[in-house]
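Re-running methanethiol S-methyltransferase to confirm reproducibility after the cluster update. Everything else is unchanged from the original entry.
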Amino acid sequence: MMQQPEAKTISLAKIIVFIYGIISYVIFLAIFLYAISFLCNIIVPKSIDSSPEIPLVKALLINVTLLGIFAVQHSLMARQKFKTWWTKFIFEPMERSTYVLFSSLALLLLFWQWQPMGGIIWNINNLGGRIILLSLFGLGWVIVLISTFLINHFDLFGLRQVYLYLRGKDYTFLEFKTPGLYKYVRHPLYVGWFFAFWMTPRMTVAHLVFAIITTIYILIAIQLEEKDLIKIHGETYENYRREVPMLIPFLAQFK
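Result of re-run:
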């Protein structure tokens, strides 16, 4: 008789964790769509290239701080040592969903407090040039999305973890594979981000600051991520790293 309440509590916990994972994912999707509008200067009330509201130096300091907050959160919570510490306080199946949620909230803060800075670096008025750059911008987002599904979209965003927990199954690391774009570059996801961040017919100072800082962050994050992948997959990933370029297809010197 004393065991029944405990069984119900465990069952309820699994349902709550699963719902938490779904909510975290939905928030991510909303932020993902918002990011496209933010960088493309459509729909959203304040975009990356909106009119400046405060002095340039103050705006620059705020924007660098916002990007720094995202970079620290995104990298720190992805490290294995942090995960080991963090899962002492939360259910382990919630760890990835929490990472996704916190990353989404960090981006939300960035979009909310972002300070446009004015100033035009380049402005392409030619219709053909604008179409090409906007097409490459769109291609970047498509590459990002496709890359996540090639490596297992649902594991990457925590849904697989909470689903397995709901079913009472243990989580297992995915088998290392190199499907599609991963045969040509090790990080097609980041290639997509580069297109999304840099391909614009109108580059303002604010947009340039955003693109430069995020590019530097990505190049650093790749090094940290690959160290983790080597720990997980060992010689398999080492061989892959030797054979496939990091970001630029067919250029061995960029491995």
